[in-house]
Description:
heterodimer, A: alpha/beta, 6-stranded mixed sheet, 34% helix, B: 6-stranded mixed barrel, 4-stranded antiparallel sheet, 48% helix, 17% strand
Amino acid sequence: xxxxxxxxxxxxxxxxxxxxxxxxxxxxxxxxxxxxxxxxxxxxxxxxxxxxxxxxxxxxxxxxxxxxxxxxxxxxxxxxxxxxxxxxxxxxxxxxxxxxxxxxxxxxxxxxxxxxxxxxxxxxxxxxxxxxxxxxxxxxxxxxxxxxxxxxxxxxxxxxxxxxxxxxxxxxxxxxxxxxxxxxxxxxxxxxxxxxxxxxxxxxxxxxxxxxxxxxxxxxxxxxxxxxxxxxxxx
Amino acid sequence: xxxxxxxxxxxxxxxxxxxxxxxxxxxxxxxxxxxxxxxxxxxxxxxxxxxxxxxxxxxxxxxxxxxxxxxxxxxxxxxxxxxxxxxxxxxxxxxxxxxxxxxxxxxxxxxxxxxxxxxxxxxxxxxxxxxxxxxxxxxxxxxxxxxxxxxxxxxxxxxxxxxxxxxxxxxxxxxxxxxxxxxxxxxxxxxxxxxxxxxxxxxxxxxxxxxxxxxxxxxxxxxxxxxxxxxxxxxxxxxxxxxxxxxxxxxxxxxxxxxxxxxxxxxxxxxxxxxxxxxxxxxxxxxxxxxxxxxxxxxxxxxxxxxxxxxxxxxxxxxxxxxxxxxxxxxxxxxxxxxxxxxxxxxxxxxxxxxxxxxxxxxxxxxxxxxxxxxxxxxxxxxxxxxxxxxxxxxxxxxxxxxxxxxxxxxxxxxxxxxxxxxxxxxxxxxxxxxxxxxxxxxxxxxxxxxxxxxxxxxx
Lengths: 235, 460
């Protein structure tokens, strides 16, 4: 394994079996990403982008191959260790925001701390701070249905940051947003990366957007890694 | 997660679906309410019986009768089994000690035994009474003047008869109420007629039956005896089996002058009516239940057959357990239905919150966290179901008590608490409700824990 790698996959394969039919979602993907990089992942629908994201985030387990993130061999971790990894090391952002509809913005942001044994007053305090960071403090008591798409995604970003993760995984974060809001959201991610040194892996089918903000660009096609382009060298 | 967070989560999730929570909890409330009501009723019955036994000191009594012809005990019979009439073996009784007649002399002798407080003949017979223009069929009990003057008979008005001889009676307040008289003092001094019935199966009677015509074919005779009421005994709401439970009490000598059908033993049916000097059964009252065994032993050594309710205590307790089990089984029907309701609610809740479970897992919840969140919810339904079920049972018990007692009071029965809610029943009901709810929640929570976050979060 590369000593500088923060994210390293080796022959990563994911096969979904549906009866006698096997779907190879990801095939022998080997990649290496250094700490503090903003990596864009692009590809057509069904190319395996989301599968890669789920595997890196510890939501799914590979059929074969290995993954190592922040020094943790997550492909070998047990279910509860994977949960701890998701809680402490990774922050995830989704295309459809995945906020709890019955919770307010503040409660949604504070939600991950519930599983980290943090007392309620501290949860609220930290969530309020993060909402202020993403510019939504005045809307903290609003439910997701009362927020715009961009606002919901900002709440999701605040939630992803609440456990002070080392890596942020964003799966099509702009997929449900208009172009202006998309720009704002990616800019926000870029700022986090620039200011806090966060490692970010962002999936998008908008290659131009990725080329504007990302340091590296990974292209997937039919589950295979077809290109790993360095757009900006590490400083 | 902290316990306070689990509780907080459960409470807020249940509050979000108020109607569903209300309906599901209502099912538990009714189930637990019915169960507690039945159990409390069973407890009430047991408490009332025990209290009545204690109040009437029924465990302090021994019934004594003459031994029948010796009957061989079957090989498998347990001589120590409770509740069986104890019959001593023929050979165990010394001839000079054997008692062949239960008469007044024996009554005097028995009262001298250590621990014996009183002894009186156990004799009842059915009769028609005629008082203030009303007629009633009732049981007449023969009570000696001595027993009548003792604390065994608590008088509400008048006084006990002075001796065993006069044609005087003491009647119960309950009987007076049934006859429409609610002022016992006005009954004292009134005349009362007792009309007895006799079945005469003596040989001469049978001979007469065989060759008789018309209504003489039946060996029945009845005769009217005038008496005077001297006292009214305090009402008894929950009359035990012994010793004084009849409505009319008369002195032995007056009873002896009457032709009547005595119901203390089946053998009395076949005795000639003239055989009235001896008693077939006498009742002995001892000072405390601990005196029962030694007194019984002394009497059995004299060849007498004894029966004490004390011996049946264990059998009675078995009966109570069986009654509790039966009530529990009936009550469990409601609980089973309620637990299915909880299971349904939890499964529905998990289906609705499928994506939320995916989010929980994505942000770091373990399978155990997810499982506990839902278990706390079902447990909370159980807790509130148990709490309000208990309240429902209590309210129902108040209503039933009020309704039944209002009817019973017209019959002269004092107020009775038909339900008893001991602390262990209250706590047990809530604990049981939580346990049942948790059990009902096991399958749904396992299902929740198995939710695959990738599937749950898949973009629609």
